[in-house]
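Q&A log
Question type: sequence-to-structure
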Amino acid sequence: MVIDSHCHAGQGDYMTAPWNTNAPIEPYLRRAKAAGIDKTVIFAPIHSDYSKANEQTAKIVARYPTRLIGFAFLHAKRDAGRIHSMIDRAVRLWNFRGVKVHGHEAMPTREVCEAVRAFGLPLLLDVADRPEVIDMLAPQYPDINFIVAHLGSFADDWRAHQRVCDQLVRYPNVYSDTAAVQRFDYIVQAVKRAGARKILMGSDGPWLHPGLELHKIRLLRLPPEEQALVTGGNAVRLMRKVQAERTTAVAVQRRREAPRSLHRNGSRASANGVGRHRAHDAEDEG
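Response status: OK
Response body:
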């Protein structure tokens, strides 16, 4: 399965640049299908209200459920005080599988990191040419998988690319996507030094062509099993933890509710053993 791990979709409301005006999904999907991309992680363009933007993302995913996977977009400062509830809504109602934060708006706070950790989500972070923030975040939250967008720089800053390559080697919980990385040799270096398991293919669609970004990975001429990691396997592995966390949470909730179910069944059910069987069934389902 080939997965594009970085794509915007929907409408922004600032309307001062393409990335905060409009990210149409249909042209992207046609290009992705022609390129052989099976699934795509999407999140909103830059927006003044990410609660509304995430709801818009959910509607787009619902239109193409076999093609799209949703991530929640957050503003670390503007959404302060409601980060946990926004992620809870995104995971519980829409089955979103990660969180996106953009450093041009605000870098992740402890509130963001603790909520992401609580839900077992990967955090896709555009460090906006400031990869030094990863040196603070990664050691503080070793149980969060940080995905650094654009290998640290959409703006083609070679110093940011170089530092992220170093961080990929140093921190086991730091990954990077390849979206819009112009200096191909830094992708080569990242894979050579950190290994294929630390890199995810991304396109930064719909504004960049997903076929072109995928071809960059094919030009690495990796062994088939390593190419498969970069083009989808790593994304699946990082998002699988989300489902595991949700399964555990459901099991815990069922165990908590089991005693109340027994009480509602009454003494006659308990006497004939029905209550005991239901309690055991609840635990088995967990």
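Response note: The longest helix spans residues 224-271.
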